[in-house]
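Anyone up for a design puzzle?
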């Protein structure tokens, strides 16, 4: 005799067996951006962060550790930042994205986990071509400032009336342009400059921090709004667990600095 099991009964049993939000957790595609030479592919074919290469490599390893706790596949897709943000906001598929700053205009367009780390963004100049800037207003007078296309810092300076902004797709190109004298300044996190210079093949002492602070922000992991609140909460718990256990501090020492 064949018994017909109702769909509602099957769903109920799955909800009992699997905690809320975990059944399709592996369906989330994780996006990252602007990692350039801060990463490598290991013997298992997995994306890894290079040691002592700054914020981007640190974030890769931090999210990997969170994935392990969540039993999520250790896979990332590297895309330009503007495309990644558009995919998150479109909310057509379940995406995760790191690292991104928490801004009022983004708040309701995605779901937040973090902070992953805290950043101070400074203007950097070619050591051989000092600009002499002392304030943000001084930066308006230089030839050109290289910034990442679609970034908050571009929007911030444009809103403040800056007309000398040159947009690029990555920080490596900005620093190479700085080295060649094609731009006068670029802006980047204090945690990222060392890794970017190394990736660009430039000496660490070829640039100088102007001490002009552009922004102070915290970096986050975000999810498409279609991802359940309960699942997002579990990703936050995974991050909190790493911080409470001391593993977060170990990753900071090993990758961030």
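Challenge accepted. My sequence:
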């Amino acid at each position: 005799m064949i018994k017909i099991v109702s769909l509602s009964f099957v769903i109920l049993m799955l909800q009992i067996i699997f905690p809320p939000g975990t059944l399709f957790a592996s369906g989330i595609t994780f996006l990252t951006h602007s990692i350039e030479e801060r990463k490598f592919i290991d013997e298992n074919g997995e994306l890894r962060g290079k040691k002592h290469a700054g914020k981007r490599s640190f974030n890769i390893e931090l999210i990997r550790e969170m994935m392990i706790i969540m039993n999520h596949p250790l896979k990332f897709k590297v895309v330009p930042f503007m495309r990644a943000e558009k995919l998150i906001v479109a909310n057509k598929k379940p995406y995760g994205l790191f690292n991104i700053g928490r801004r009022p205009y983004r708040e309701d367009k995605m779901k937040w986990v973090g902070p992953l780390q805290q950043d101070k963004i400074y203007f950097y100049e070619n050591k051989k071509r000092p600009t002499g800037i002392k304030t943000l207003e001084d930066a308006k007078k230089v030839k050109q400032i290289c910034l990442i296309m679609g970034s908050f810092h571009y929007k911030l300076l444009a809103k403040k009336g800056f007309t000398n902004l040159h947009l690029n797709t990555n920080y490596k190109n900005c620093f190479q342009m700085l080295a060649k004298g094609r731009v006068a300044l670029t802006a980047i996190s204090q945690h990222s400059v060392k890794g970017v210079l190394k990736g660009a093949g430039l000496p660490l002492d070829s640039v100088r921090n102007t001490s002009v602070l552009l922004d102070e922000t915290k970096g986050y992991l975000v999810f498409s709004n279609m991802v359940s609140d309960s699942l997002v909460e579990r990703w936050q718990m995974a991050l909190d667990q790493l911080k409470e256990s001391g593993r977060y501090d170990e990753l900071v020492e090993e990758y961030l600095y």
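A detail worth pointing out: Residues 36 and 72 are 24 Å apart (CA to CA).
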